[in-house]
């Protein structure tokens, strides 16, 4: 299934099932509200009712798609998880880690799949990072890598927008440089795990103004998504709806100082999951 949060003619937030180039309104299904995170633990039990729902249909072009998960308890990202990208970082003065290196993206950074990315007034080094987003499906604690896939609800496209001049210099933990408002666009919907044969064999492409900047497949991870879940779950209980940004390949803007600027259009697409597209806009001082 492909499940989305959306608005149509009114301002009401609804859940919907993607069916081709249309979205089927699920608000008529008993017990389904407007939070996909709240629905995730019940997806298996409600699968048949969701698939058979025959609510109003809307062309995707006529609705506003929202962040599939707008209220996760945790949004975590792993740094330098593709070898070529790790080398890019090393050349920029960041040592290549010898174990999984995790950071927080504050959940207030979450943005809609087609929402604007704001370039903050305090930075001139705004960068992009396409990533496979993994959404946790049930509480995971001390999970082994072999059983980790059983805990995945599904996948989405993530752009781990990064303010480079706030990373190593002003926020050595990465948290601040990764957490500016609007710097977590995700979507366009949640694709459930059963829809994807192998999440480690998906092509990822990011373009800026139509120019390909990043192109790789998810098989290039140093630590795959199952190892990531196992590692994190030794420390904390991963909860339904938690989002893991699983690493970006090479091609980021930092090595060439090719920063994002107002007016740029950033499109991130992952095979089988869809695409998100965001316009870069200037910050409004005092807002």
What's the shape? Answer: globular
Contiguous low-pLDDT stretches (5 residues minimum) are none
Main beta-sheet annotation: 12 strands, mixed
Helix content: 10-25%
| Percentage of β-strand residues | 25-35%
Distance between the termini: 38 Å
What's the total helix number? Answer: 4
Order of helices and strands: EEEHHEEEHEEEEEEEEEEHEEE
- How confident overall, as mean pLDDT? 94
**SS-derived structural category:** mainly beta
Total beta strands = 19
Keywords: Isomerase, Metal-binding
Organism: Microterricola pindariensis
Domain Rv2993c-like N-terminal: 1-68
InterPro entries: FAH, Fumarylacetoacetase-like_C, Fumarylacetoacetase_C_sf, Rv2993c-like_N
Explain how this protein is built:
The chain has 4 helices and 19 strands. It is mainly beta and 287 residues long. The longest helix has 10 residues. The N and C termini lie far apart (38 Å).
List keywords for this structure.
mainly beta; 11% helix; 287 residues; single chain; five-stranded mixed sheet; 4 helices; globular
In short:
With 287 residues, the chain is mainly beta. 11% of the residues lie in helices and 33% in strands.
Secondary structure layout:
Elements: E1 2-7, E2 14-19, E3 22-25, H1 36-39, H2 43-52, E4 57-59, E5 64-66, E6 75-79, H3 83-91, E7 101-104, E8 110-111, E9 117-119, E10 126-127, E11 130-136, E12 152-159, E13 162-163, E14 184-192, E15 203-208, E16 211-217, H4 225-233, E17 243-245, E18 265-270, E19 274-282
Parallel strand pairs: 6-17, 8-14, 9-19
Antiparallel strand pairs: 1-2, 1-5, 1-14, 2-3, 3-4, 6-7, 10-13, 11-12, 11-17, 12-14, 15-16, 15-18, 18-19
